[in-house]
Amino acid sequence: MEIKIVRQIMEWNEDCHDEIQTLLNKKGIFMINVMGSPGGGKTSFITKLIENLRKDYRIGVIEGDIAGKIDAEKIAFMGIPVVQLNTEGACHIEAMSIKNILPEFNLEALDILIVENIGNLVCPAEFQIGEHLKVALLSIPEGDDKIEKYPLMFTKADALVLSKYDLKSYFQFDENRVESREKQVNPNTQIFKVNSITGEGIDKFTIWLKEEIKKRITKAKEE
Ligand SMILES: Nc1nc2c(ncn2[C@@H]2O[C@H](COP(=O)(O)OP(=O)(O)OP(=O)(O)O)[C@@H](O)[C@H]2O)c(=O)[nH]1
Ligand SMILES: [Mg+2]
Q1: Cα dist. 138→62, 113, 132, 142 in Å?
Q2: Is the pLDDT reported for residue 110 higher than 70?
Q3: Has this prediction a pTM greater than 0.70?
Q4: Which of 117, 173, 198, 206 could staple 35 via S-S, CB 3.0–4.6 A?
Q5: Half-sphere exposure in the Cβ direction for 51 (13 Å, CA)
Q6: CA-closest residue to ligand 1 atom 30
């Protein structure tokens, strides 16, 4: 079976990922790729995370959507620099798009760049976009079988955020099933339980993220 075209795109994309990382490392910017299903709670999670981080870090956001600027408007409303990327049909963001968008930001005035990927559990997992960290959201109403059905997303994730955790009592969601499956596909993934309406659980994620950023800075100094 021929998969040439896909392979070429992946190789090309991989180069671009490295190029972006080199630039971001030079500027001291930490990039986070937030992925998950449509409506899984990505924007809500990002806004709560920004509230926690903004006193210590200068944050920028790239909002990925197939169309429109609804999410970018929510971020702009917070006074955070944001660019909306419309993929016009593509189900994931590619590194080249990020590279093209970076000049839209004042990179000297950024510590963290958060990218909200296109709502999809499949394609975004396949493409590196220059990020230092991948966060996968799985909301309670989506069901506890998603790691088995969409393993790549959860294999690649550095953090698994169980979002809409406040809805747990309304759904037959077996948390142990999710946790044990995640351990099988990626024993290094950190699991967090959050309610992005009240902000419950975001503090724990923030503490972990700050540690990851520190580790990256130490590593960059050694390089
Ligand atoms: N109860 C509850 N609702 C939530 C939570 N997080 C998000 N929601 C709701 O879920 C809906 C979708 O949230 P968004 O944050 O827009 O989800 P998204 O993943 O950014 O959606 P797309 O960008 O369209 O893929 C909204 O109505 C939110 O208010 C949560 O933790 N608990
Ligand atoms: Mg969104």
Answers
A1: 20, 21, 20, 7
A2: yes
A3: yes
A4: 117
A5: 15
A6: 164
Q: Please answer whether residues 161 and 138 qualify as being in contact, where contact means their C-beta atoms are separated by less than 8 angstroms.
A: yes
> Which residues surround ligand 1 with Cβ inside 6 Å?
36, 38-44, 71, 119, 163-164, 166-167, 195-197
- Between CA 113 and CA 82 the distance in angstroms is 9
Radius of gyration over alpha carbons of the chain, in Å? 17
Burial class (CB within 10 angstroms; exposed 0-12, middle 13-18, buried 19+) of 15:
exposed
Q: How far is the CA of 98 from the centre of ligand 1 (A)?
A: 24
**pLDDT tens figures, 120-149:** 999 999 999 999 999 999 999 999 999 999
How far is Cα 137 from Cα 205, in angstroms, rounded to an integer? Answer: 12
Which ligand gives the minimal distance to the CA of 45? 1
* Rounded distance from Cα 156 to ligand 2 centre (Å): 20
DSSP 123: G
Enumerate residues 6+ apart whose C-beta is below 8 A from 42: 34, 35, 36, 116, 117, 119, 137
pLDDT value at 163 more than 50 = yes
Q: Whose CA is nearest to atom 9 of ligand 1?
A: 41
Q: Tens digit of pLDDT for each residue in 97-106?
A: 898 899 999 9
Task: Say yes or no to pLDDT of 52 above 50.
Answer: yes
**Phi-psi bin for 111: left (phi > 0), alpha (psi -120 to 50), beta?**
alpha
- Cα of 28 vs centre of ligand 1, distance in Å, is 30
